[in-house]
Structure prediction request, 246 residues.
Amino acid sequence: MLKGAPRRLTVLDYGLFRVNAGRTIGICGYLIETDAGERVLVDTGFPQKYADDGASAAEEDLLGAFGKVLVCGPENMPAGQLATMGLGIRDIALLVMTHTHIDHVGHLDGFPGVPIVIGAAERALPKPLYWGDVRPMDWPDAEYREIDADTVIGPGLTLISAPGHAPGQLSLLVELPETGAVLLTGDAISRPAEVAEGFAGTADRETAVASAARLLEIAAEREAFVIYGHDPAQWSTLRKAPDSYH
Prediction:
């Protein structure tokens, strides 16, 4: 799917969310740029309506049953984050969806003409997962490239099938020239404590445990820098747009 190797990885700040359990978590996406000039966007944050009127959006989506959006303004939308690097929506060549929960799928339809890479089990659903029993989004008309196993999509960039948290959950292994291997677990491991907790409350707990174990094994083998999906302790330490890992 890609010709070039990753040369830069940027963590995107899609806002802050407080889970009812008490954790305040960062909502992240990623921009991967290759030495062939290709730009890959990973996940798209909350829907635009959360930047326009977050209270009304949360009420409409019944999101209060899970937690509260603390920060989510125009600057936390994909266009706002890309703008910090002097880029725009039209600069994206490929969109990778790690899964389709509300804080990842919000702008799935915001990149017309851009191929969408997604787990096959996720795309097989009637609608994106979104949140709880709320399913307001339809699949946009797009070119979907479905992943059902670990897949190298370019030199130094591998998508790892890691179901459990979501049926089509994907993680990414990115090889950078200076930093070395970086493992983006996505929500397959949202925070290290999930592993010790045995992924309590996850819809497919047994599968989630197995996926996490495999990811940690890959990380150990590759001596990878691991970036977790929503780790409160790690969030403040990460370089974020416009700063990058090289």
About this structure: Residues 40 and 94 are 5 Å apart (CA to CA). The longest strand covers residues 6-19. The longest helix spans residues 205-222. Helices lie at 49-52, 54-61, 78-83, 102-105, 120-123, 193-197, 205-222, 232-235.
